[in-house]
């Protein structure tokens, strides 16, 4: 039935060239709506409100609508101010209007330079820490190399100090297993 009602609303909209809007809520709470292509639901509701004299929106909705308009205007003003800070659309401004923009840019520039200096100091500090760490590691590596060189030299000295020849006389004697090796023919 819901689809039949929406179909009839479309037909009335086309055949009568009327602005039609239908909102249907089922028993489960599901909403279905149809609105003529030439209009929107808020426009139809506003037109109904003006023609019937009944207020569809209560005070709470009115204050929300006013708040939405205020926020939109504020957003537009901020967009314009942002364009001015970017250096766009400045030709339409008077010199007195340029002074606050210049001051805001000066404050921003000062803030950016302070942040750059802070980062530069942090990098310098890190650079010094890395240099100190590098010196310590180089020092430790040097001592480890000296220790290793010393132990290698100690081993070499140990071999040189020992005299194996007098302590150990090695004589080799070949004993023939096969008698024909010693025989002279």
UniProtKB/TrEMBL annotation:
Pfam annotation, one family: SRF-TF
Compartmental location: Nucleus
Gene Ontology CC entries for this record: nucleus
Coiled-coil spans in chain: 61-88
Any one Gene Ontology molecular-function term assigned to this protein's record: DNA-binding transcription factor activity
Annotated keywords: Coiled coil, DNA-binding, Nucleus, Transcription, Transcription regulation
InterPro entries named in the record: MADS-box/MEF2_TF, TF_Kbox, TF_MADSbox, TF_MADSbox_sf
PROSITE patterns listed in its UniProt record: K_BOX (PS51297), MADS_BOX_2 (PS50066)
Protein name: GLOBOSA-like MADS box transcription factor
Organism: Zingiber officinale (Ginger)
Originating gene: GLO4
């Amino acid at each position: 039935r819901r689809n039949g009602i929406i179909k009839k609303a479309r037909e009335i909209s086309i055949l009568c060239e009327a602005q039609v809007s239908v909102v249907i809520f089922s028993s489960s709470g599901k909403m279905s709506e149809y609105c003529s292509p030439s209009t929107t639901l808020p426009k139809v509701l506003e037109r109904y409100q003006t023609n019937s004299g009944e207020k569809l929106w209560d005070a709470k909705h009115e204050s929300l609508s006013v708040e939405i308009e205020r926020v939109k205007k504020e957003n537009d003003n901020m967009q314009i101010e942002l364009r001015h800070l970017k250096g766009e659309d400045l030709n339409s401004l008077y010199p007195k209007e340029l002074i606050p923009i210049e001051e805001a840019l000066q404050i921003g520039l000062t803030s950016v330079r302070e942040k750059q200096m802070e980062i530069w100091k942090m990098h310098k500090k890190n650079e010094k820490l890395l240099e100190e760490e590098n010196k310590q590691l180089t020092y430790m590596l040097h001592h480890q190399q000296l220790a290793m060189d010393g132990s290698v030299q100690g081993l070499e000295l140990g071999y040189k100090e020992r005299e194996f020849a007098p302590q150990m006389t090695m004589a080799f004697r070949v004993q023939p297993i096969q008698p024909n090796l010693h025989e002279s023919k």
